[in-house]
Amino acid sequence: MKPLVSPYRTCPSSGLQQSVDLSEIPDKQLEEAVVRIVEFEGPVHVEEIIQRIKSHTGLSRMLGKIKQRILDAISSAENSGKVLAKGEFYWPLSEPAYLLRRRDADAYAKIEWICDEEIKEAVRFVLSNQYSTPMEDLIIQTSRVLGIKTTRKNTWDRIEKLIQSGIESNELTRTPNEMIYFVE
């Protein structure tokens, strides 16, 4: 099943220069870079924002002081109302064009860096295309839709937990033959 899911696109430019010393960048400019990344990639995990700034500036190592400056810029963007925070994820102010995105070689798929809302959207996508599905298959297909090639324990547990919460909240149902589907 080749899903018709938009690819995850990484922000091509945060406006920061390559090989720049991050300690010399004004706070405002760093905050603008964060906002650009979140607007382009959001919802995006805090670690992914840090990685993007690291790659855009060509930093080989992320020292604690530099990482803290980026975290401060992220907080500043949130506090000034330029981005929305939900846990460790940052969202653009406008609804993202595509909540469900498939990661590939360019955007390494780590389940920890994918928000619950996107995982739930992947579950809905699988069920819309396969109809009622056994739990095991639903978990594996959901991870594939997100671009995760090997469904390890942490991925399995996280997706299963979100499916279970969908069942508990009556969005999903488990049929007598153990199939998962939308509540009719």
Q: Low-confidence parts, pLDDT < 50 over ≥5 residues?
A: none
Rg, alpha carbons: 18 Å
Q: Give the SSE order as H and E letters.
A: EHEHHEEEHEHHEE
Helix/strand-derived category reads mainly alpha
Q: Could you give the count of β-strands? A: 8
Principal-axis shape:
elongated
Which percent bin holds the helix content?
40-55%
* Individual helix count: 6
Sheet with most strands: strand arrangement: 2-4-3
End-to-end distance, in Å? 25 Å
Mean pLDDT value: 92
What amount of the residues lies in strands? 5-15%
Task: Give an overview of the whole structure.
The protein has a 3-stranded antiparallel sheet. It is built from 6 helices and 8 strands, in the order E-H-E-H-H-E-E-E-H-E-H-H-E-E. The two termini are 25 Å apart. The radius of gyration is 18 Å and the shape is elongated. Helices cover 46% and strands 11% of the residues. Helix 1 packs across helix 3 (64-79), helix 4 (116-130) packs across helix 6 and helix 5 crosses helix 6. It is mainly alpha-helical and 184 residues long.
List the helices and strands and how they pair.
Layout: E1 6-7, H1 27-41, E2 44-45, H2 46-57, H3 64-79, E3 84-86, E4 89-91, E5 101-102, H4 116-130, E6 133-134, H5 135-145, H6 153-168, E7 172-174, E8 179-182
Parallel strand pairs: 1-5
Antiparallel strand pairs: 2-4, 3-4, 6-8, 7-8
Task: Explain briefly what this protein structure is.
The protein is mainly alpha-helical and 184 residues long. The chain is built from 6 helices and 8 strands.
